[in-house]
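User: For a benchmark we're assembling, each entry needs the component sequences followed by a predicted structure for the full assembly. Here are entry 17's components. Please fill in the structure.
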Amino acid sequence: MSLGIVMLVHDALDRAEQLVRHWATHDCPVVVHVDAYVTQDDFANFTAALDDLDNVRFCKRRHCEWGTWSLVAASQTASEAMLETFPDVQHVLLASGSCLPLRPISEMRAYLSNRSQTDFIESATTEDVPWTIGGLDIERFTLRFPFSWKRQRRLFDYYVSIQRKLDLKRTIPFGLIPHLGSQWWCLTRATLSAILNDPQRPRFDQYFRRVWIPDESYYQTLARRHSSRIESRSLTLSKFDFQGKPHVFYDDHLQLLRRSDCFVARKAWRYADKLYDSFLSDQPTVVTGAEPNPGKIDRIFTKAIERRTKGRPGLYMPSRFPRDGHEGNITAARYTVLEGFSELFDGFEDWLADVVSARVHGHLFAEDKAHFAGGAPEFFGALTDSAKLRDYNPKAFLTNLIWNTRGERQCFQYGPSDNQDLSWVMAKDTNARIYVVSGAWAVPLFHSNRNFSDIRREAARLQKLESEHLTVLRSGHARARTQIWSLADFVLNPTEPLQTVLDDIGLRQPGALPKLPKMKPLQGFGQFLQDLKNQGMHPYLMGDFPAGHDLVPTARIQRKPYLVK
Amino acid sequence: MGVWTSYRLRLKRKQCHIRAFRKRRELTEIANRTGAIKQGDILCFSTIRNECIRLPYFLNYYRDLGVNHFLFVDNGSTDGGAEYLADQADVSLWSTDASYKSANFGVHWTGWLQRRYAHGHWSLVVDPDEFLVYPFCDTRPLRALTDWLDTSDVRSFGVMLLDMYPKGPMHSLTYAAGQNPFELADWFDCGNYSISKNPKYGNLWIQGGPRARAFFRDDPEKAPALNKIPLVKWKRNYTYVSSTHALLPRGLNLVYDQWGGEKASGCLLHAKFLDTFKEKSIEELKRGQHYANSHEYRAYHDGTNEDTDLWCDWSEKYMNWRQLEMLGLMSKGNWA
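Assistant: Structure for entry 17:
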């Protein structure tokens, strides 16, 4: 019982030589196909270097190009030579010049001789495979591909689209059911010779010549026709990235590859000395007898693909700067924006910081500076409280803050006197939880001793800004979860809205609602609004405050807060 | 991109080439060992001025990463740096006393050398105080990266300039030749960078970090740009437009993903803030050869009068590239 290796080599001849020697000295005959683009001199040196091995053969050379029939033709020639020259070979493994055996070859031979009738070839129908590069799946088999995808990309695309438009289709030869799979297989002598000696082979070959990437479908399809027992997986560990290129293994993958228990891995970087030295050495390795388990490696490469295609939401950095609408999420984590609360309650921020498990900031986007929690001049990630730096790019300030503090809920105050450039950013952000007591900005004005005409002007300005802000929050494009109460509704029944806010952020000690903070006195507030009205301004965002008497918090009138989104 | 824009950018590119061609006369050949450059070698280009003390570590760092040949332009050093470089077997050296400013801050000089020697090579353009860190740089040489970029058909590799600073005032340190500068300056800002896109060349424009925080608090738009594209598979018709921040043709500037994913990127650790800094900023201010009327150096100079300590409570201590990748300052992309 013996294993034969068909090896396709096109560069890194020094490594290929090392590999051939390794296989051959472990009683595995090797037939090598060297690409015709390797110069005659290099080829001569290569063959001369392997002269001392009697179970190595070189077959006729041709030029191979990715995704074309030439690769299949090369493996056919080499396979024929293998079956003819080495009659005891029972299994044939197709490998490349950078496929590294990871386990002792004796162990691999034992594994195969226990499964002498099994063909190891990944083979699935086109409907069931996710890896279709360029949107071509069944069309690989029904269109013609005379142009090179790498060199004549435009012609390639153009010819595909013409065929699609004219609805030109080739007939798949009778008796073939298209299957796809990894191009690296290990077939039994019986199956391989049945494929190569099929009376219909000229017809099939003719057909596959114009199929796209036939090396991933020729053997995979024909094995289904001839094999008695297919194990649809490849013995060669080979991972592909999102562009369909094989991932490369480096020295730092050594332990990972060891633990994978796979037999062969593709492909190792040419200069990964440590990998080649340790896997091609003859040190007595522990024979595990384990089934291949590429799970760990799979995870690493799946994560790499995810990072390349989806990235880390909420992160803006030198190699991730998504266009508007393609961010995934605008920020990295959920955060809470409170509007109007600190205007209405005495010491609201301190109270909130005590009861919830979150970082409670003041007005981060205030005109004078960023009011970080505890009045700190700097914060996570060395953000500073400088208003100029912040306003230079307020969106970056917000996304940085949320990114820097991943794992800790952030909570900040906001209002119409703050930087309004953020309105849309927050409204479009699914991570934002925005709670607004509309019109609460009037309370500090009410308590101020300023000249009434100034107050009137300021009130008009703030009302306009907040009204615009609320329009944004209520817009159809808004994705934030928003709740808005008018000041009057809130004053009548503050418990329920506060409970909603606390529940959303999360209490430090779950249980009953802690003692409420003290509301600022509002005696005469109705009259104050009436005075504003008398001056010709129309304060409407705070709801209905009668001028004659004051609103008293009561549980009698309970209106449901309305949910925008 | 319209035909008109495309045409204008082409003119701009030609203009850069012509200027670089004219500036070639300012360069005097001191040691030319470019004959030793082999096919596929990785080349490093740099302009120096009175930075002899930094050179031993710089050369060793990049030799260890796998740079095969260094091409230096010496802009009138008087500290023996040129002699030191001329003795190195893998260094080619040109010298000039001409104006740094009128050579577009050295871009024309290195541009000419690149045009002559870098065609078909991976070319790294860094200052002597910039140290490249890329994913897996502790286990994989630079060639592993360039090989991978080659097979991925990626022509340029973007990085962020990360300003490193010591804890405590800079003048209290004593940097010795050959020493790893990040033994002294091992702190950085991890999350205060702001990014915008430059519509003209399509590159990102990154500002922030300790320099913006300490010296440009009141004038953030003048803060220095931190985006760089130092590693490029060079072709004769490429050119840097402003320092290494932007290239033409502008497809080379697309080192970032715009659809939510992350491309692979690195960091350039910037060892500017050592005890040598104050002296340097005084000298540079006197020469007035730096960008935007030496605004940067003036701001530094004002700032360093009382020995500014760039360190703050939220500074991060540097450990390795994995830390930078976790903090989101660089990315592995789909290199695994």
